[in-house]
Write the structure tokens for this entry.
Amino acid sequence: MSEPLRIWDTRTGKLTLELKLSDGPKHGSAGGQFAVAPNGMILATHAYDKIVMHQLVSGTRIATLPLQTTGYISEFAFSPDGDLLASIT
């Protein structure tokens, strides 16, 4: 079982959120590379065969996108306005 992705408040040192990304099948990978939107409100990462986006305050999954490849994602990046997400394998 993989470790959760942890979000910390850098001002207080307090753990604010743990995202468990291993709710998918027992093959493939989850977690790894991720990106935070410029507004600091959305996190994108991958879980098995999908890109997942979470709202960082609540941890709620807000979008699931297909990977468009069978490979491991090596990088994510949001556009400066946060409207686009790029990924590369």
